[in-house]
Design brief:
The complex is a heterodimer of chains A (about 120) and B (about 110).
Chain A: E1 3-7, E2 11-12, E3 18-25, E4 33-39, E5 46-52, E6 57-59, E7 67-72, E8 77-82, E9 91-98, E10 106-109, E11 113-117
Parallel strand pairs in A: 2-11
Antiparallel strand pairs in A: 1-3, 3-8, 4-5, 4-9, 5-6, 7-8, 9-10, 9-11
Chain B: E1 4-7, E2 10-13, E3 19-25, E4 33-38, E5 45-49, E6 53-54, E7 62-67, E8 70-75, E9 85-90, E10 97-98, E11 102-106
Parallel strand pairs in B: 2-11
Antiparallel strand pairs in B: 1-3, 3-8, 4-5, 4-9, 5-6, 7-8, 9-10, 9-11
Classes of the chains: A mainly beta (about 120), B mainly beta (about 110).
Chain lengths: ~120, ~110
């Protein structure tokens, strides 16, 4: 059974960089796309971007200027950095697996981690 | 970006009812439409992919239909565990977008 687990600070100060890591267990990180998705409190789901196991990325245009994703296949992990955060970036952040093929759905999700932006 | 509009935004129903949720895309997305269920404090769970394919382990009372711009998710006979929020999502083109959600509540 594939499992994903997000980790990282739960509190980030305004203007600083949010950093999260997703660890994949029970399966390989190879041959799949991996995504970050967030959900502000009480609101809907927002896709942040994808990274392929090879390292190629695709970001949401509205966040592209502030987002960096990376992958470490040796550790079966991928990561998110979001710079210059504001209160609007407060959300539950999920990592998820895209099935084999860019047009496939998010078939496995992490449990999510709440990141609060506050001084 | 492809916009997805769900209707209704909220719905009250009783156990045993048949309910249908609609998702309309701002342009044709063929059959690249997925449905997720989310319960409070939990991650979304994939129910239906490619418009009408049932994800493994999902009860057969869930079904999906549609192609192009108009899609539906139907629950044939509501069970107590089905009261949750449902989201549609398209994978036709990036950015991957979600509908705003439909909250299904107990009447």
């Amino acid at each position: 059974q594939v499992r994903l687990q997000e980790s990282g600070p739960g509190l980030v100060k305004p203007s600083e960089t949010l950093s999260l890591t997703c660890t994949v267990s029970g399966g390989t990180i190879r041959s799949y796309y991996w995504s970050w998705i967030r959900q502000p409190p009480g609101k809907g789901l927002e896709w942040i971007g994808d990274i392929y196991y090879s390292g190629s990325t695709n970001y949401d245009p509205s966040l592209k200027r502030r987002v960096t994703m990376s992958v470490d296949t040796s550790m079966n992990q991928f990561s998110l950095k979001l710079s210059s955060v504001t209160a609007a970036d407060t959300a539950v952040y999920y990592c998820a697996r895209v099935g084999q093929g860019a047009t496939t759905p998010f078939d496995y999700w992490g449990q999510g981690t709440l990141v609060t932006v506050s001084s | 970006d492809i916009q997805l509009t769900q209707s209704p935004s909220s719905l009250s129903a009783s156990v045993g009812d048949r309910v249908t949720i609609t998702c309309r895309a701002s342009q044709s997305i063929n059959s690249y439409l997925n449905w997720y269920q989310q319960k409070p404090g939990k991650a979304p769970n994939l129910l239906i992919y490619a418009a009408s394919s049932l994800q493994s382990g999902v009860p057969s009372r869930f079904s999906g239909r549609g192609s192009g711009t108009d899609f539906t998710l139907t629950i044939s006979s509501l069970q107590p565990e089905d009261f949750a929020t449902y989201f549609c999502q398209q994978t036709y083109r990036t950015p991957r977008t979600f509908g705003q959600g439909t909250k299904l509540e107990i009447k």
